[in-house]
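A quick aside before the break. I want you to see a complete sequence-to-structure record at least once, exactly as it would be stored in a machine-readable document. Don't worry about memorizing anything.
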Amino acid sequence: MRKIVFGFFLIFGVLFGADDRWNAYLFSDDYTAVRKGISMGADLNVRWRGMTPLYNACRSGWGDVVELMIKKGADVDAESYGETPLLKVAGRKVNDVNLARILINNDADVNAKDANGNTPLYLAILNKNSAMIKLLLDNGADMYIKNKRGDTPARYILSQKSMPSVSFDSPDLIISAQSFLLGKSVVSIGVANKTKKFMKVTQIAVYFNGDLVGELSVEKNIAPNSKVPNIGTIKLPTSIYQSFKIENNGKSTITYGLAIEYMIDGSAKSYDNEKPVQLNLW
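That is the input. The structure line, written in tokens, reads:
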């Protein structure tokens, strides 16, 4: 083992030069050697194969070494391989909340982007790490920064969630919306005729937070005391998530409304109602 370590530092001594021999210690896989290099005044912003010592310490999971390097002047936002140390620890391979907290407490950029335009928050959401998500949001992470595909953390997480089914009851009818995946944004509407007369449904509509997000002309008849489970399917805009406010605890409350226009015995009628619906996102 001693020969391997000696060989490691001999190679680095050649690469960095004799005067920078302590820099080699910062990239060792030996924890003690890294601390030795720091104590001997090695350059904490030197690079080897494109990475900084701080980046290397982060990927190794050495929290106290990370703290010591930052204290001694390491650049907390220096990029290696197209990502900052915070992006590294928020990613799938490290995924370490404690390391992220150390970096954030030392002013790491919580909205930094990697080569694909992804932020630490986007990566934390991909990993479903609720503690990491909360830490980032509590420290100013932006839910609506787009990556190179045009996706945002908010859009991604909402696209994976289903809006629950809802129904509203009036003296004439029951109107209901089936559960649907927000990423597909297609909702099926059902209507039950509670009267003893034929009902002609002419229009149905969906509202989120008071805004009309989709409507459909149907022109369908429903027999007395009967129901049509799917009287029409409404295509909603893919941007509907933008009106949803997401709290730092991962909850989003949406006011979900349905409206219908119909006729009974030639008399035009309408009905609408709404209720709050809560989504638990993480």
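Two observations worth writing down. Residues 1-12, 14-19 have pLDDT under 50 and may be disordered. The chain has two domains: 44-158, 162-280. We'll return to this after the break.
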